[in-house]
Amino acid sequence: MFKFIRDLSIKTKIIATSVLCAVLVGGSIVLFFPYNQGVQIEQQALEKAMAIATMTADNLVTSVVFENQTTAKEILDVLKGNPDLLFAVVRTTSGNVFAKIVRTGNVNNLYGTAMIMQPLSCIKGSVAFTTVPIRSQQETVGWLSLGLSIRKAQRQIQRITLTAMLVATMLAVVIIFFSMLVAKAIAEPIQQITDASAQIAQGNFDVQLKVRSRDEVGMLTETFNGMCMQLKESIRNLALSEERYRLTFENVFDVIVVIDTTLRIVSVTPSVQWIMGYKPEELAGQKLKSLTQLVPEQRRKAIRALRALFHGAHVKDLEFVVLTKNGEYKNVEVTATALMDSHGVVQSIIASMRDTTERKRAEEEKKKLQEQLSRAEKMETIGLLAGGVAHDLNNMLGAIVGYPELLLHDLPDSSPLRPAIKAIKESGERAAAIVQDMLTLTRRGVAVREVVNLNALVRKYFESPEYAKLKEYHPQIEVHEHLDPLLFNMIGSPVHLLKVIANLVSNAAEAIPGIGSIKITTENRNVDTSLKRYEEIREGEYVVLRIEDNGIGIPEADLQRIFEPFYTKKVMGRSGTGLGMSVVWGTVKDHGGFIDLVSEQGRGT
User: Where do the H-state alpha helices sit in 475-579?
Assistant: First the structure.
């Protein structure tokens, strides 16, 4: 059967398909459209009958309950105004006829008594029949059966059916007529192409067919004519293709390497000189395992990748670090595939290498910026949280610090209670210091601004009780100052800036376990391009305060966290509050400044 269909001509297939489609479309119109319309018309008739019956049943409730047949008859007589009404019968719950109007036949001839004594809605012949209960206070007191004629609707369905048959017939004729025209328009050019192909097979390449249309068949004819002309130029085009391949190979930006099955480099694109500094002839002929351009771990990684390639795998975006001719390390991505013969045997490996150094650098910079942003947001959040409880703690600490002072004032020096009360007082003072730092964090934004000079603030710090106390605790540490005498003035808060100096010097001193030195330097700095340091420093005119120590340094793992509130390696309450560096960070930010941090373990910060 299928072979018979395959052997038919294209023209016959098109006409046969069109006839089949016409039959299917016409049959669908004749069958489904009238049926669908009939269902809708009958449904509308039933809904109409149900609506009339329901409304009438509501009006009959009183008549049935009080057994007033006269009123019931009058209500039914109103329905005579509907020309489609055939009958309406009211029965009691016992099945007796209470009232009725009948225009034709006997109701019981249409439906038995049992059918009328229950809710019903259906079409029987040319009658839309419905039975509804008559209810009084949710109790059925009778039944109303009603029938409407649907002969007009049925005649309308017949007219629709006849119209659909006529339309389907006309549509089928039109489809068949146009299918014959289309079949002829398609089959004749294809036959011409078949005849011309036979001439080409005999060596005649000068065949040219007339293009009769702009459709797909016309395009096929044009393509056929073009093919005939291109056959003459195939050898010349092949030579041009080889030349284009050579030029592409020599000018592609990515490095393309061809490796044979002995892991020897057969050829490499000149772009290798742009990325690695080697000329192609310097690498051609070398064995991959002897290349010094790959660090030892990278060579082993490359060999493993090659083994995978020889087993049919595909290597994509494999990352390597290569050593260029001038000694610079670069990041590259390698994608490679194996070229196999028809038997699946690997003949060579083609690999492309792309320089990703700049992209890697950009990714690292982006990661660093994200870490800085995260650190700043975290410090802001923790600072606000800490400040939220600082005010309440400060009120309670007033009593803890004040009352021991009064008690000590009244107690004799020999009282055994003095050490304990004095310890309470000192603990309260340390707690108060912590709370004061917390309040400094929560009061972000410098309220008092005036012209200040960092040199003057440094000298003022040397005269402060804090510095005297530091020298008392760390007598073996020398503090040197190198202050720029031409240091610019700035706008800021002297109190906050003095706190910054004190905190930084105190931290530096506590990082020195024995003999050591701290150097305080000030200078002017013009930043004309952004600096990528501990944080990004934007362009501008700045004054610089630098605190240097030769202490134990900061572990790398702690560098990103030392400005977080309550992050400290000291004993809380004894040598630090965990808020000193957070106060430094907040004050510098409030003054529109930046912080740079350089530390090396064992050498200082």
Answer: 494-510
Helix (H) or strand (E) holding 353: strand 346-355
Provide the Cα torsion 163, 169, 173, 174; round to 10°. 30
Rg (CA), the chain: 51
| Residues 430/573, Cβ–Cβ less than 8 Å | yes
Give the Cα separation of 455 and 464 in Å (integer). 14
Using CA atoms, how far residue 415 sits from 399, 404, 405, 409, 410, in Å, is: 22, 14, 14, 11, 10
Q: What is the mean pLDDT of the chain?
A: 78
Q: What is the pLDDT of residue 194?
A: 76
What is the residue extent of each domain of the chain?
A: 10-156, 249-354, 372-590
Q: How far is CA 435 from CA 261, 383, 438, in A?
A: 73, 12, 5
Residue 379's SS3 state is helix
CATH architecture of 372-590: 2-Layer Sandwich (3.30)
Asked whether 115 and 133 are in contact (CB, 8 A), the reply is no
The b-or-e profile of 456-470 (16+ CB within 10 A means b, else e) is ebbeebeeeeebeeb
Which residue blocks in 117-215 are alpha helix, DSSP H? Answer: 151-201
Asked if 249-354 and 372-590 have one fold, the answer is: no
Asked if residues 531 and 351 have their Cβ atoms less than 8 Å apart, the reply is no
The amino acid occupying position 430 is: R
pTM of the shown model = 0.40
Q: Could you tell me how far CA 326 lies from the centroid of its own chain?
A: 43
Look-up of token digits 């393509």: 223
| In the predicted structure, residue 547 carries a pLDDT above the cut 80 | yes
Q: Which residue has the tokens 């008092």?
A: 448
Q: Dihedral of CA 103/109/115/117: which sign? A: positive
The one-character DSSP state at 343 is T
Sorting pLDDT into bands at 50, 70 and 90, what band is 487?
very high
Residues 6+ apart with CB under 8 A from 178: 18
H/E element holding 64? helix 10-65
**Is the distance from CB of 153 to CB of 45 less than 8 angstroms?**
yes
Q: Which of 394, 596, 581 is nearest to 506 (CA)?
A: 581
Mean pLDDT, to the nearest integer, of 248-266? 74
- The C-alpha atoms of residue 379 and residue 460 are separated, in whole angstroms, by 29
Residue 451 has pLDDT above 70, yes or no: yes
Q: Residues 337-347: what's their mean pLDDT? A: 78
| CATH code of the domain occupying 10-156 | 3.30.450.20
CATH code for residues 249-354: 3.30.450.20
Phi and psi angles of residue 541, each rounded to the nearest 5 degrees, phi first: -95, 125
Give the C-alpha distances (Å, rounded to integers) separating 242 from 156, 235, 416.
78, 11, 105
Separation CA 131–CA 145 (nearest Å): 4
Look up residue 5 and give its two tokens.
């269909």
Angle 129-142-135 from CA coordinates, rounded to 5°: 100
Separation of alpha carbons 29 and 210, rounded Å = 42
